Amino acid sequence: xxxxxxxxxxxxxxxxxxxxxxxxxxxxxxxxxxxxxxxxxxxxxxxxxxxxxxxxxxxxxxxxxxxxxxxxxxxxxxxxxxxxxxxxxxxxxxxxxxxxxxxxxxxxxxxxxxxxxxxxxxxxxxxxxxxxxxxxxxxxxxxxxxxxxxxxxxxxxxxxxxxxxxxxxxxxxxxxxxxxxxxxxxxxxxxxxxxxxxxxxxxxxxxxxxxxxxxxxxxxxxxxxxxxxxxxxxxxxxxxxxxxxxxxxxxxxxxxxxxxxxxxxxxxxxxxxxxxxxxxxxxxxxxxxxxxxxxxxxxxxxxxxxxxxxxxxxxxxxxxxxxxxxxxxxxxxxxxxxxxxxxxxxxxxxxxxxxxxxxxxxxxxxxxxxxxxxxxxxxxxxxxxxxxxxxxxxxxxxxxxxxxxxxxxxxxxxxxxxxxxxxxxxxxxxxxxxxxxxxxxxxxxxxxxxxxxxxxxxxxxxxxxxxxxxxxxxxxxxxxxxxxxxxxxxxxxxxxxxxxxxxxxxxxxxxxxxxxxxxxxxxxxxxxxxxxxxxxxxxxxxxxxxxxxxxxxxxxxxxxxxxxxxxxxxxxxxxxxxxxxxxxxxxxxxxxxxxxxxxxxxxxxxxxxxxxxxxxxxxxxxxxxxxxxxxxxxxxxxxxxxxxxxxxxxxxxxxxxxxxxxxxxxxxxxxxxxxxxxxxxxxxxxxxxxxxxxxxxxxxxxxxxxxxxxxxxxxxxxxxxxxxxxxxxxxxxxxxxxxxxxxxxxxxxxxxxxxxxxxxxxxxxxxxxxxxxx
Length: 774
Known about the structure:
Blueprint: H1 9-16, E1 21-25, H2 31-39, E2 45-48, H3 52-65, E3 74-78, E4 81-83, E5 90-93, H4 95-105, E6 112-115, H5 123-132, E7 138-143, H6 149-155, E8 158-162, E9 169-173, H7 187-201, E10 205-209, H8 213-222, E11 229-233, H9 239-246, E12 253-257, E13 270-275, E14 278-285, E15 288-295, H10 298-306, E16 314-318, H11 340-349, H12 364-376, H13 388-393, H14 400-408, H15 412-425, E17 432-433, H16 438-447, H17 453-461, E18 469-470, H18 472-488, H19 502-512, E19 517-520, E20 528-529, E21 534-537, E22 549-558, E23 567-576, H20 578-583, E24 588-597, E25 600-609, E26 612-620, H21 623-635, H22 643-660, H23 670-681, H24 704-713, E27 717-720, E28 723-730, E29 735-742, E30 761-766, E31 769-772
Parallel strand pairs: 1-7, 1-8, 2-5, 2-6, 3-5, 6-7, 9-16, 10-12, 10-13, 11-12, 13-16, 21-23, 29-30
Antiparallel strand pairs: 3-4, 14-15, 17-18, 19-20, 19-22, 20-21, 22-23, 24-25, 25-26, 27-28, 28-29, 30-31
């Protein structure tokens, strides 16, 4: 069969020998299978595919077509698995693998690099393109969209376009209102209705686009009575399911798939697409990348429809309205994900993220947050380049922050425990399900009485629990993570895992990541806070209702109708005590009061964290607390009298003088002045107080001959026999306000009773009543 892409073969071969090439071609045109083989004339070819399933299936298909063993001429490399050697001519790899190879040798083993499906705009593909632009490698970039002008300018590349062959596809919309947006309400039932309609109207296979594995499993259960073969296709599905999806069967199929089926993969014999209009898309929440259920963009809807018109006329049944206000294009990942991994990868593979020219500028806020986080954990330096620690963390197959915590564990036994916990956290799918029946719950509580999710995750990876159900594919991946991390950190194999102290593990994690410590809020039932953000324990957690504090290790966001209604749910948690939070020295020490008792300064302190009082105690003041205590005692005239009164009055007089003479000055409070002065003097111990005279603390900037005549004419307070008033001056407006402070006098003062203020309009204020002084 001649593929549509064959029309550009001569032009492609002539162009690739001299220039970078950007190929725009519809999905199914053959670009993923033909271009790498044509490019072999230039040398060894690396094809970077955004998805693992595409990597393996394309390599297997081409090896089969070439009638060779996988790994000989054609091979692949994905996480945990590879089939190729130094003689393999074409190697398919995921972006993560390619980035780690670039870190090792700048991909010097290859002559041509092809970035397939670039229109998906993953952050790792953007980074690879920026890195490869600096290398002496021939580049092929493919895109299923027509807007390739930015790419052409960026690479100074030549453009090639292949039309592709497309059969007519009729669109049907299953919504009462033409503007109905995609939604998950009654999704299984609506999919079933669409499938029943499709079975009547088409004899080919039916491809259903769903947002995730959970929805696929639910819909599969709903369709089990239909006379079709139900096939599940998603990232991480078994090899047998992949084969069922990628090969025609002797019975009509309903293939339930995520976005993995939108591009790259060729699913034969599909004549009907059922589009839920939904996907799980990443976005930023509190600086963290989270997944949420979203309506697809118009470009994605077009890609989905195209799957029904590859080999025959088709139909596309949309489960939303014809005029639903979908966004035009899916936003690039750099705009909706944390850039921590990108910045670390750039620091390992270049002179820092700012040394690279990206096809689109990185968002400044996200980039700054990533730099700050990586500098804080010492993974990169101030010049944005990776430290030795950063270079050690980067090749690990887990998030840099999680790798940092493993490295921060103080002993090998705690490191092993953290590795096994991280292994579960790193699997994108849900690994386990808490028991629902009473008997299994009691068994779990007996085995793990601390109600700690962290313990549960570790025990599962170590195969120490039998009362918790888990997804076998996800658990297999978790164990692979554990085995690989144990090898990287030179730890014993899983079967020889060391026992560990749970309390010491929690303390070590909290020390490395204090922002993971949350305490129960006083003002909201069920909510926990850390001073910056708030979480609510998810139903999947084992944390008990009476838990006062916890270590929050993993979360997900649950969107509400408005921003304020959005919630962050804590899923993997470890209970801790408020005493442990206090011992970690988190939060702030606040002085409730200070006293001089038998010559000693004692303070009543409370330690607070996220608005929660952790402990209260009476202690002998020392260090910074001593200075704070002395400030309070001096200003309340209980220590070094009359320093407090002089400082308060002199500061106010100086500021009034500067105000009258329109002279710029720093407005400083008596408390701040005293704190700075005592620090300048070097007050550290209580014995130092005996060496300080009150006059040592006095505030005096202006000469007495300057200040005293001015204050005599412009007093801060005016006292009559039965009335005390505070004077408020407005020199520019020539107004003075006398504020009542105390006294029994009922009427306003007379003008002859108060100082002469020529040219000023004078008013008197008591409570809310303001009158002119006459």
